[in-house]
Specification:
The protein has helices at 8-30, 33-40, 44-51, 54-61, 79-93, 95-104, 108-126, 136-156, 160-164, 167-183. It is an all-alpha fold. It has two domains: 8-61, Homeodomain-like (Arc Repressor Mutant, subunit A, Orthogonal Bundle), CATH 1.10.10; 71-183, Orthogonal Bundle (Tetracycline Repressor, domain 2). Helix 7 crosses helix 8 (136-156). The termini are far apart. The relative contact order is 0.13.
């Protein structure tokens, strides 16, 4: 195997980029260290040197910044639609997030990683909108159930009615529910 000369940081980033592609395309179980190494043009032992195990590589590859929009700049009553649209675009373009969702259904460590992403990033994004900021985590969890449910139905289970909907239609149906979770007074 011909190895390309790169710095340690460049090698690590190249491994992560290739791993993200493989995990997104093939899922965790069908992705191999050997295939990642081959595409990254390195010896498989280098992948292990940088990441220790396939599990640790997956965890690093699935460290995702959702890049949520600043919902405080959105017109009143539109945050739910904006957040829903953002997630549909993210699910469509971020295959690693989908790989994490699939794995989280059966692996406790991946489930914890998914919980962490939603608990920290989504809760932080919605806290300024909440009538009671102490409820931000609860409201983020409720929003996550809807957004993850759409992703599961559309991209994992391939439920025909959800798959057939375009992004705008999903936003129109789900956005108002997310809005309620974000801004409605407590029940």
């Amino acid at each position: 195997m011909t190895e390309t000369r790169r710095s340690g940081a460049e090698t690590r980033e190249r491994i992560l980029a290739v791993a993200r592609e493989h995990f997104a395309r093939q899922g965790y179980d069908r992705t191999t260290i050997r295939a990642i190494a081959s595409e990254a043009q390195i010896d498989p032992s280098m992948v292990m040197r940088y990441f220790g195990s396939k599990e640790e590589l997956f965890t690093a590859a699935a460290s995702i910044d959702l890049a949520l929009p600043d919902l405080t700049t959105v017109a009143a009553g539109e945050a739910g639609r904006v957040m829903t649209a953002h997630f549909v675009r993210t699910w469509d373009s971020e295959g690693t997030l989908m790989a994490l969702l699939r794995r989280a259904a059966s692996d406790p460590q991946a489930a914890e990683q998914m919980r962490g992403i939603f608990a920290t990033q989504v809760a932080a994004a919605i806290t300024p909108l909440c009538p009671d900021p102490a409820q931000a985590r609860r409201r983020a969890a409720l929003a996550a159930t809807q957004l993850l449910g759409i992703a599961l139905g559309r991209y994992v289970l391939h439920l025909p009615p959800i798959v057939e909907m375009d992004a705008e239609e999903i936003v129109e149906w789900v956005g108002p529910t997310i809005q309620r979770y974000l801004t409605a007074e407590s029940a």
